[in-house]
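Risk register update: the risk of archive-format incompatibility is retired. Evidence:
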Amino acid sequence: MKTEADSMKQTRLGACLGAGLGLVCAASAAAGEVVARDGFRDGLAAWVVEQQPGGTVEAQDGVLTIADRAGCTVWWRARMEAPLVIRYTATMKHDARVSDLNCFWMAVDPRSPDDLFAPGHGRDGRFGTYDGLATYYVGCGGNGNTTTRFRRYDGRGARPLLPEHDLKESAALLEAERAYRIEITVNAEGRTTWARDGVVWFTHLDPEPLRSGWFGFRTVDSRIEITDFVVERP
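Archived output:
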């Protein structure tokens, strides 16, 4: 007899395979297995774009290009579950403002916790429309490339900033045309990390951990090229 858990697993797997990218259901993956991957050669079927007018998002020839003017988030369509490791390479292009190599992970909308994309969510690419999420967030080179920050949004509109999570030194900021390797981890005990080029800049042990949710690239008024997106079981 099929249980409710079996039905949920089958639903998630069907959604993953429907993206046409060979995505493996996270709930069934063993350690070391790839649970999500996109080589950016098959368009945006696996992604949901929320962007203000004046910007574009394209996936072709192995590159996801986010060219933005007034705010953009590009969500991986399938829900992710901890433990996991998210990796990708991102390059800030010199022909635009070098700022805001940002991302959300384990994001959930408390108004529709089982569906981030339920009708009426109200998100449109403007940064303030994301304040109601429960999520982890890093703004790398934000505020015109003057800060790199980690925040844990609480799902009620608060997004506190701890002093140790507010970095301003030049090493934490961005350079144009440098290919940054980003690695994000979330473990089963509630610890999450954000690393760039092998250096862990943020570690957060969450007393109320977000163990399941959605991942999204985030930027504003910049041009970013992203390659080699993969999610694995640690």
